[in-house]
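pasting for the record
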Amino acid sequence: MMCAAWRRSLLLLALLEAAIIVGYGRTGLAMVEIWDRSGTFAHAWVVPPIALWLIWRQRAALTALRPGPSPLFVLPFAVMALLWLVADMAAVNVLSQFAFVAILVLAVPAVLGRRVAWQIAFPLAFLFFCVPAGEFVMPQLMEWTADVTVAALRLTGVPVYREGLQFVIPSGSWSVVEACSGIRYLIASVMVGTLFAYLNYRKLKRRLIFIGVAALLPLVANWMRAYMIVMLGHLSDNRIATGVDHLIYGWVFFGIVMLALFLIGARWAEPDVVSGPSSTPARDADASAGRAFAVPVLLALLVATPPLLAARINSALPSAPPVLARPDLSSRGWEAGPTAVTAYVPAFVAPMAEFHGSFHRRGEERSIGLYVAYYRNQSYDSKLISSDNVVVHADDHTWAAVEHGALPVGERRFRTTLLRGSPLAGNGAPRRLRVAQSYWVNGNWTPSDLRAKADGVLERLSGRGDDGAAVIVYVEEDGELGAGEPALTGFLRDNADALDSWLKGARSSGLGDNRTSKQ
């Protein structure tokens, strides 16, 4: 029968967890929205029920312990609350969601004590699989898939011409897109493999080895899947494995591989040991009634502070959209063109203001494209630094990134991307496009996503606002490969200062009604 200490502690924990869910509700709802719309993280729906079931399995051992608050966890709890505030200001989903789950988890040892938390340490840690994280490795996984597939094709005598993530074999063209990265296989395998290792092994070494295999196997399986699909298409003259069916083949193959892994892993399963409470005296139980309530009250104050600070900071941000008219670059001999350079538009989501046009040096025909996406009062739906904001998406059927580099222009730095037009890029679109990109954050220039994000957070926390823009220039490569870089360098060297002044003017304006200006 549950003792009074357990009833009191569970009530306090339930109230604290409810306060966390209410105070950070939009972070939790954002997680659920991602689970619902993304097949990559659909597994997260079953994580909380599994964690609760794992805790229920420990009920005999738990009731033998006497709960009590542990002030030792107040500091890490406060650190996670601060991390949530910074992540929320930066609109970084994965960090704010990680902090949210960490706050929920740390409330358990803080209220129930470290010995109780240690008894259910795995179920608590398992809850972090709720965080929809891991997509940042997708570009590298796609690169590895392309590397292995092309190497395997060549080893089996199939000639291949490759550019970036696209390659051509005698029977047709193929490209590695996001669905080919294997990220879904990897995340699902690691989660299920971790649970399997916990339930079937007692020794830490065996658990870690199995989890490592569960992480490596889906990568190898995905590479084999990609190679087999290309070969099936090649040998069947592209009659099979070229549409939706190749995704079905992939999941069937992955299921067979994972089933084999678990069948083999079960051969080394260790007998279950019914664990009980430690014989060491439970010092957490010696807490006075005053401390039993003082710690949860302190945690409740820590829970309330970050959302209140975030609301106060956000209320001080300017809400009026900036004015982003066409820049005047005539002082250095550049004139605005009548149209954009080509049918190319960078992929930036929900900027508050936008400019897209072209310029050419007076007396010359070659045009330079200029695209600027301006952000202010940034949120999770509209922010400068995002995985959705790219010069070209991996799944774009018109352009594909085939080369990356850097372009220094005085003290400013730009990163470059060479785009190749696919066979679908008709209507006179150029075969190659050289693109240079940098970020402008309240007067600071940087090509680094991390530096731009950090600058924006510091500016926002300081009360100076979070204005920032992506500045992208591009030019056709209609001659020798690399001929576009000198043209971009010349344009930026002539006009970088003028563009900086133009963006500063947009920052100080914010009174116009037109959110989009396209020339």
